[in-house]
Each structure stands twice: as C-alpha cells, then as structure tokens.
Amino acid sequence: KMDDDDDLPQLSSHTLAALQEFYLEQQHREGMKTSQGFNQYSIGSIEEDWQLSQFWYSDETASCLAKEAVLAAGKGGRIACVSAPSVYQKLKEQDGEDFSVCILEYDRRFSVYGEEFIFYDYNHPLDLPENLLPHSFDIVIADPPYLSEECLQKTAETIKYLTKGKILLCTGAVMEEQAAKHLGVKMCKFIPKHSRNLANEFRCYVNYASRLD
C-alpha cells in the first residue's frame, strides 16, 4: 500500500510562508491595478460608464499631473486627489518632497494607504470626516467616475468645499460646458493619456495659470 503522503516532498514552513507572502503581494498588486473606480453603482448601469470609471492614467500622464499639483500647491502645500488614485500614487512616489496629500476614493481597497485614505461616495458629496476642514487644500485634482452632469455637479460640491481656490479637473471633452458652469474651469492644451485607450476624448481643465498649456 502507498504510505499516505509520506513520500511527497514537504515544503518547509519557512518556504510556505514565503510563498504565501509572494501570492498575497501578487494579489495585492493585481488588485491595485484593477481597482480604480469599480463600485456597486456600476452594476447594470450602461457599460461604457462602468468601463470608463476603471481606467488608469498612463505613467507619463500621472507623473505630469502629479508634478503640476506639487507646483500649484507650493511649499508645504496640501493636495487632495478625488477619485484620482493613479495621481495619488505618483505623488506618494515623490516622498520627502514638501507637501501632503489625501485620497478620497470609493474603493475601500485603497484604505491600505492608512490615514490619507478617505472613503468617498460622490452621491453624498459633503459626507466627509469632520477633520477635513473646508478650504484646507491648496489644490484639488478630481476625476469624476462618470461622464454625466449629475456626477460632475455632485463632485463639484466636494471640490468647492475642499479647495482654497485651485482646481484641476480631468474629464471628457464633452463635459467642457458643464465643467465651466459648475467649476469655472477652462480646458488646457495638455491631453491626458490612459494606459488603455478610452473611447471618449479626455481632457484637463483648470481655473488658474497652470503649466499644462
């Protein structure tokens, strides 16, 4: 008879732990790659909207927007990223620079960022923690998850609450009029790119003299 499992090679507990850690890390990385903007409001909604809210910026675009935010915020400045986790991640790469940053995001997987993570649902634009004081950020970067006036209008309430003045909005070119109406922002020459191509033309809008023109 076969000795049950005795002849099978046994992995040491150390190797098993290392493997487990490797798989967890891999899962975490995969999760980070796919998680932006996925939320339960997407279920059964129009497919393009669901798709749209899942796109990451290309590395180059995220870097460019992060640099712009740091310059606009100034020394010791505070930056808020509203539904723009790839810009937040780029800002975090520049550790040691003189600024602070918060991420307001619906996807709770981003809570791995600790205290800088603030759960945010655009349907409740002012449902924010008490310690998030009005007009306490030098610049707010926002990328509303859906191309709808309702989503822009609600996100705009959050942006106006948070910012001392400067706004950097990323959304579709079709939103130009609504962006001007709700936030007083104008389209820049800079064209943001995504790591996968979007069906809708995407643009950046600002309400101050930026370096994106």
UniProtKB/TrEMBL annotation:
GO CC terms: cytoplasm
Protein's UniProt keywords contain Methyltransferase: yes
Keyword Chaperone tagged: no
Keywords recorded for this protein, A-Z: Cytoplasm, Methyltransferase, Transferase
Enzymatic reactions: L-lysyl-[protein] + 3 S-adenosyl-L-methionine = N(6),N(6),N(6)-trimethyl-L-lysyl-[protein] + 3 S-adenosyl-L-homocysteine + 3 H(+)
Pfam families in the cross-refs: N6-adenineMlase
GO function terms (MF aspect): nucleic acid binding; protein-lysine N-methyltransferase activity
Gene Ontology biological process terms, A to Z: methylation
Compartments it resides in: Cytoplasm
HAMAP family in the record: Methyltr_EFM5
The protein's name in its UniProt record: EFMT1 methyltransferase
Gene symbol of the encoding locus: Eef1akmt1
